[in-house]
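Holo model, 6-O-phosphono-beta-D-fructofuranose. Inputs:
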Amino acid sequence: MKPFDLLSSASAKRLTALSEAMKSTHLKSLFAEDAERNNKFSIDHNGLFFDFSKQKINEEVVAELVELAKEAGVAESIEAQFSGEKINQTEGRAVLHTALRAAKSEEVRFEGVNVVPFVHEVLGRMEEFTRAILSGERKGYTGKTFTDVVNIGIGGSDLGPAMVSKALEASTNGLKAHFVSNVDGADLASVLNQVNPETTLFIVVSKTFTTQETLANAEAAKAWFIEKATGEADVAIHFAAVSTNLDAVGIFGIAASNVFGFWDWVGGRYSLWSSVGLSIALSCGWKAFEELLAGAREMDHHFRTASFEVNIPVMTAMLGVWNRNFNNYSSLAIIPYSQELSRFAAYLQQADMESNGKYVGRDGAKVSHQTGPVIWGEPGTNGQHAFFQLLHQGTEVIPVDFIAYIQPTSSFKDHHTKLMANCFAQSEALMNGKSAQQVAEQLEAAGLTEEERAKVAPFKVFEGDRPSSTLLFNELSPKSLGQLIALYEHKIFIQGVVWNVFSYDQWGVELGKELAKRILPVLEGGQKSEFDSSTSGLIHRFLGSSEK
Ligand code: F6P
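Output:
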């Protein structure tokens, strides 16, 4: 497929003009002029209501964004990905995380071979392992039933499972899950302090099985365990591994029956659907894991078959392109009104920023347009009392994705009503703002003198006109979570197509790793090396202080 140059495309030129024209129109006047606006700019699909009417768009903009998607070859790209083409060209790999959630009856071919039976063979082993552990059939070295699972991994081998497990643990049954990722020993120490070696299962998760952080934590956890247990033989009972590098797992010393593989056509940050999700299955139960996959599969089907105008991932992606490239908004806030989704923004940071945070286009030349925005966020309402001031009155416009659920997840039903009132109020406030006249009237009603009013009024005005979308699901369930994650995965992919970057590699994280390998022996005291004056100053200070 020929590389797509966003800014020289015909639709981009028209979108640039439309964005200029839209500048003088306030979002609230778009609502005032059209009673049908919410109907026009929303998609109701299988338990999810996607409301994008508070984006700064009109029908012409949407039509042009759809045109842009067509011009960029989005339809062809979707088919190329789903049908196992090696679209991750810099690593020479296919991208088939969708095959991980394919039904047994489906066929997904890679190099002429249907991979679905392999996927279901591993799923079958995971199910059996999960059943044996949760039923108590497989026990710890002293004969006790397992109570805790510790997932040792980082990046895609941590963030997805940790996010999902946190989101579903309260509504499901399984082991208590812990996640150790950082090479800061404090992370491992804090988890080891909470668990009993007799009843704890460790899963070492690393696609490559070469990641420094994970190997350091896995070795330390193994040493801790051996010291507490009756000997090295107990490792076979308490340690499992998930990897594509089975040789390295063997060298680490994990019993083959406890090793779960996956394939190089699964990107790390897209891997929670594979055996990387073993800690999800163990902490939430097998049924929940299956429903998670089913939710993602449902979204895959929608993504692959719905026309662009009513295709939630495509529209989400194209609205993001509109905001990033035609309105110059450089970040996107992800605000779930759900405490269970407290790790969702962190998860999405890797999924999105490691995929599309790239300035080199598919032709190897620097792109001339902006690519991935900064992704960040925290759950509401906590975020309201932290950074929402900047969202409302900061000098930069930051679009927001609100994520909310109609059904409460706790028995505190009144809390949920309050939570939703806050969620809806925030998008309304960002959109409408508060005019100088409204402020003046309120201050007058509060009894302030004219002089007092004049003094304080400017600070109380909100310009509004700040865009947001709301993803309103019926309920937080394994299925709806699967839908949500798959939705964002597909959004990221489409944006990569439009931005003409390779979304499935991550060369940008390599340099730091390489340099850390060079610095480590110096810090360990054995080697000398040349650095810039800042780096060498930091090293000297570290060595000087740590020697004392
Ligand atoms: O940080 C880069 C990265 O390769 C991520 O893409 C990946 O999710 C993470 O490291 C962990 O890699 P692995 O699963 O191979 O340990």
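The first helix runs from residue 10 to 22. The pocket of 6-O-phosphono-beta-D-fructofuranose is lined by residues 154-157, 206-208, 211, 214, 268-269, 354, 506, 509 (CB under 6 Å).
Archived with the compound record.
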